[in-house]
């Protein structure tokens, strides 16, 4: 039986999947850099207390804003 996810957990996974979809739209030579950058951003906060709702919500807002910037066609590569 699959474990049910909270609303915030679903939001975090949704943001990650959206980021992965955005990586596919980048030039082939820089996709790996974007994928590693995305993964590192999430792993840096992996040990965050699951009940720290205000911090998680803040990081979700920040992540959405960053994704909007990095997903724009003018951003061709990212430094890791």
Count every helix, treating DSSP H or I runs of 4 or more residues as helices. Answer: 3
Low-confidence stretches: none
Shape: elongated
Gap between N and C termini, in Å?
Answer: 38 Å
Q: Which sequence of SSEs, written as H and E, runs from N to C? A: HHH
List the helices and strands and how they pair.
Blueprint: H1 7-23, H2 31-43, H3 53-70
Q: What can you see in these coordinates?
A:
With 80 residues, the chain is an all-alpha fold. The chain is built from three helices and no strands. Helix 1 packs antiparallel against helix 2 and helix 1 packs parallel to helix 3. It is elongated, with a radius of gyration of 14 Å. The model has no long low-confidence stretch (mean pLDDT 93).
Main attributes of the structure:
80 residues, mainly alpha, 3 helices
In brief:
This protein has three helices and no strands.
